Every structure is written in C-alpha cells, then in structure tokens.
Amino acid sequence: MDFAIIDKQRAAMRSTGLDALVSLSPENVTYTTGCVIPSQSLMRWRHAAAVVTVDGQVSMVVIDMEETTAKKFSAIENIRVYREFVDDPMDKLAELLRDLKLERSRIGIETDFIPVRDFQTLARWLPQASFVPAEHLLNRLREVKTATEIERMRRLSKLTDGAIGAALQRARAGMSEMDLAGFLTSGIFARGAENFKLMIVASGERSQYPNVGPTQRVLGAGDLVRMEIFGVVNGYHAGVCRTAVVGTPTPEQKKIWKNLIECKYLVMDQVGPGASCKEIYLKFLRKFSELGFEPISFVGHGIGLFLHEEPYLSRYSDRVLEEGMVLAIEPLVYIPGRMGLQNKDMLVVTKTGSELLSDVTPADELIEI
C-alpha cells in the first residue's frame, strides 16, 4: 500500500467535506490498497471494496476466494470477508461502514461502477448516510502519480519497449504475425511483466487497422509491421508501439516516419508543468498536417491503472499538465486501404519538462527487418 496515495485521498476528503471514500472498481481498489484482486475484473458479482476514512483508517471487503491474496499483498489489517453464494457483499460493506461509525456520514462512492441494485441495498442498510459520487475525484487523484507509481511505470515502460524491440529483431520474412506475437509475449513476461493488454501485431495491409491482434498472415518484402502492447505490473499499464518494415522503406514511408518522429519530439519539447494540453495538440497538428492526412483527435493521454486516463493532449481539452503526470504520446497515421504507421512512447512530466520512459528500442528511423 502506497501511503502517499492514502494521504492524497484524505486531503481530497477534507477539501470536499467527505468523511470516507469507498472504492469499488478493480482499478481504484488496487489504487487504494496496492493489491490486485484477480477475479474482481473477471466476474462482476465478485465485489471488492476499499474504504478510507478522513482520519486515515483503511479497510477492505473481499470475497472468501480472495481472502488470502488480500491479506498477503494489501498490508491492510481490517479485512472483511463475505462468502460466495451465501452472503451479499453489500451487507458486509454496510456492516463495515457502521463499525467505522459512518452510518450518518457523508461518503464518497463510485456511482458509475456500482450496480443500481447493490447501491439500493447499501442505501437501505444506511438510510441516514449521504452517498456522494466520487468517481471524478478518484480520477483526478490518479492523474498525478506518486514517486512509487512513477518508478513502477518507469520500469514497466522499459521492459515493454524492450520486449517489442527484441521481437522485431527476431522477425524475418516468411514468419507469421503469430510468430511475432509469440516472441513478444514470451519476451514481455521474461522481462518481468505480470500481464499484458491489447497486443497488436498488424502487417502489410492490416497495418491500417488501429486495434487488431495477430493472425497467420505471413510477412513479405515491403510489409510494414505495427506492434503495440500494454505491459502490466500490479494493475498498472505501459503502452508502447513500434513500426518496422520488411526490407528497405520506400521514400513515402521514410517521409511519413520522419514527420511522426518530428511530431514526437515537438510534443516532448512542449510537455512540462503548466503546459496547455490544447496548445500542445494544436502545435502537433500544424506539423502533422504537412503530410496531408486525417489526424486523430488526440496525440497523447494519461495512463496508469486505466489504459486511457485524463489528461488528453487534444483540441478539446482545457487542462494543463502537472509534475508527476504520466503520458502516452502516439503520433500515428492510418491510410485507408494502404497502410498504418505509429510510434507510441511513455513520458513523465518532470519539474523542468519531461522524461522519456520508453527509451530502450531506437525508433527515430523505421526499424528494418
């Protein structure tokens, strides 16, 4: 458990007049407790809850199947356990809130996650409590990472980048996308990832599709190969994408890639505390527009326990960057019917600018297979 996160939650409660904060989503339960409850995200009815009070008490509710995991990895002493098929987890959560003397308190809760039926059960048990939507508060707190979170994402970014680079080094004409996927998955686990999300291996004409997985398609001369994966450690994500070409890139491919890499460094040069997300995007857009292709609606986004978090580097954003935010920036182009090229990197906002976290695989030139 990261006590800096608990301190942030307590400060947010004091400033908003809350007496307690209840996290229910898998991501925010992990954020609060430091513990991933493996089956919570797989089976919606297997509720877990983390409760933090304004005076600093931290408690948890878990299903009996996950009791040993919670006790081993959360460092929380007050863990309430409900029996699957026998107990209602909302009964156990209500009991915990009463024991914490919160039955007449103002309680923040993730109203965008809890099913209506379960919320009605909780409210029935605690009719004098005031439940307040807290999802936006938690989302905002997660945007600025603690030192522990940044170090985790630094390590995760490097291992994810390294796994992609190593897979592309082994790639050869005549191999299939599935072969590359095997190299990538074995490499990411060998480097220390605990899981991964959204693996993309898209070659040739398939490189135009944003989010497709590997197939038995065989690599041939001249094919572009886009590889992206989100490595996961303790619930946190690092997204990295690299593009390669089988053989020698064409002049058109070189021109596009040169622009995308110039966009990458242009964005990095603008990133820093106080920088406007909208202005960063508009400066990117002016450079990207030299290619004459349709741009995506953002060039970067926050990342952490969710694949995408605020802030977005977008024309629609009114946000400014803060020290400690972690961003994924991804200049890309998809040309319908032809090809797609993408470079995605991980950054952290520092006191004076930014630090490139995914710095293992050289990407300034198109990787040649």
Describe the structure.
Strands 4-3-2-1-5-6 form a six-stranded mixed sheet, sandwiched between helices. A five-stranded antiparallel sheet has the order 11-10-12-15-16, sandwiched between helices. Helix 7 (147-170) runs antiparallel to helix 8 (177-190). Strand 15 and strand 16 form a beta hairpin. The chain starts with a helix and ends with a strand. The protein contains ten helices and 17 strands. It has helices spanning 3-16, 26-33, 67-73, 89-99, 116-125, 135-143, 147-170, 177-190, 251-270, 277-288, and strands at 20-23, 49-53, 58-63, 78-82, 106-109, 130-133, 195-203, 224-233, 236-245, 298-302, 309-314, 326-329, 332-335, 339-342, 345-349, 354-356, 367-368. Helix content is 35%, strand content 24%. It is elongated, with a radius of gyration of 23 Å. The mean pLDDT is 97. The chain has 369 residues and is an alpha+beta fold.
Task: Provide a compact summary of the structure.
This protein has 369 residues and is an alpha+beta fold. The chain has helices at residues 3-16, 26-33, 67-73, 89-99, 116-125, 135-143, 147-170, 177-190, 251-270, 277-288; strands at 20-23, 49-53, 58-63, 78-82, 106-109, 130-133, 195-203, 224-233, 236-245, 298-302, 309-314, 326-329, 332-335, 339-342, 345-349, 354-356, 367-368.
